[in-house]
Amino acid sequence: MYIPEIFKGMWTAVKQIFKPKFTYQYPDVKFEPAASFRGRPVLVHENGVERCVACGLCSRVCPALAIQVQAAETELDKERYPKLFEINMTRCIFCGFCEEVCPEEAIIMSSEYELAFTSQEESIFGKDKLLKSVEEMKPRLDFLRAHR
How confident is the model at residue 105 (pLDDT cuts 50, 70, 90)? Predict the structure, then answer.
């Protein structure tokens, strides 16, 4: 009575065996994201000097309220720098608004996607975990400049 349906289902399964696989054997094979991929946000620094001028636009535009910035005065060419810059990664929704609004290209979305925490405190990234050099982030910066 249901024999034709059984053979249809088995035929579908047999056809799928010979098609290419979409699944990566993670963690043996790592996913290489495209340039447009929005991973975790990072702060960019040039020659040890961070680009951020602590304008606070990123914290104002963040819909998840994940970014906290406190400004302080500096003797460098720029007027201010962030004394405190923290991103709560459990709140971040990786929307990229902070990257779009930043006038100095100081905060950008990296290609890092592996985020695992064992405690709430570990999920709050300070400047020590956020700072990356311009050379490390060059592919993303080139992509942003080409698509603005």
Answer: very high
The topology (CATH level 3) of 34-146 is: Alpha-Beta Plaits (3.30.70)
Can you spell out the DSSP letters for the chain? Answer: --HHHHHHHHHHHHHHHTSPP----TTTS-----TT---SEEEEEETTEE------HHHHH-TT--EEEEEEE-SSSSSEEEEEEEEETTT-----HHHHH-TTS-EEE-S------SSTGGGEE-HHHHEEETTTTHHHHHHHHHT-
pLDDT at 1: 66
Which distant-in-sequence residues (6+ apart) come within 8 Å of 77 by Cβ?
none
Residues 6+ apart with CB under 8 A from 54: 69, 70, 71, 72, 80, 81, 82, 83, 85
Q: What is the CA radius of gyration of the chain?
A: 22
Q: How far apart are CA 137 and CA 32, in angstroms?
A: 15
Would you state the structure tokens that stand for residue 41, as one six-digit string?
A: 């946000």
Q: Where do the structural domains in the chain lie, given as residue ranges? A: 34-146
